[in-house]
Amino acid sequence: MGRPGKHVCSQVIPALVRERSIDLVIANAENAAAGSGLTMPMFAKLRHYGVDVCTMGDHVYKRHETLALLESSDRVVRPANLPREATGRELAVVTARNGARVAVFTVLGRTFMNVRADCPFHAADRLLGSLPADVKTAVCDMHAETTSEKVALGWYLDGRITAVVGTHTHIQTADERVLPRGTAYITDLGMTGPYDSVLGRDRYAVVQSLVTGVPHPYNVATDERAAVRRDRRDGRRERAGAVDRAGEHSGPAAAAAGAGGLTRSSSGKVIAGARLRREPSLLRCCLLWV
Ligand SMILES: [Fe+2]
Distance from the CA of 284 to the center of ligand 1, in angstroms? Predict the structure, then answer.
């Protein structure tokens, strides 16, 4: 989210890809450009940092310049349950670094969202039914406000898709698991962005708005720690390393699976996974071994 999120991506993704031999990086980028939308230059930067595919969400059309990006890139997907005429691709099929063909799409939830969208369940059915025969790995970003819609889609697609991962609420949930038929699931991956904030926005402005009822501009929060890392060249690597080492999550599911945060799949579809929640954390992500 915004500049702090971009800064962390630039520092963490290249090292993470190297250390974990990650084959494909998928990011929801709908808030990358100054907290709302995605621009061509920002997309180019994310690609440079190692992001392979960007999904969008309810902010997909917040910026007019995003339209050109959606029309030109086959690595950015708009929500698939928008009208057929909506600008942009609803499905990306890319080749990962290990040679696997991977399909990526996103759907919007319909509860408490300010976008009129069609049924996400039927949209997912339609896309999964259209996948090329050589595509064995598919990931769905369920961009929704309510946990119930996301959990329901996870169960609905269990065994038919590699992973269902939620986005939009900006708060990472602790329910990562492999569902009985082999689909990896987490209700929300959380946000990569300013830690001391309200969902990435200036915490003082949000609190003041809620307390007084007087609207304040919800600018992207500045992150003092990220700023320190930028300014202190000597300390940059040390600080980045601290973020890297600090806090791989180890909850009950992680204990059950050893090093991974997800339990093993009986079908073998998802071998293992780990949810990363690095503290003081600006990085929220989920790793899957498929
Ligand atoms: Fe969103």
Answer: 15
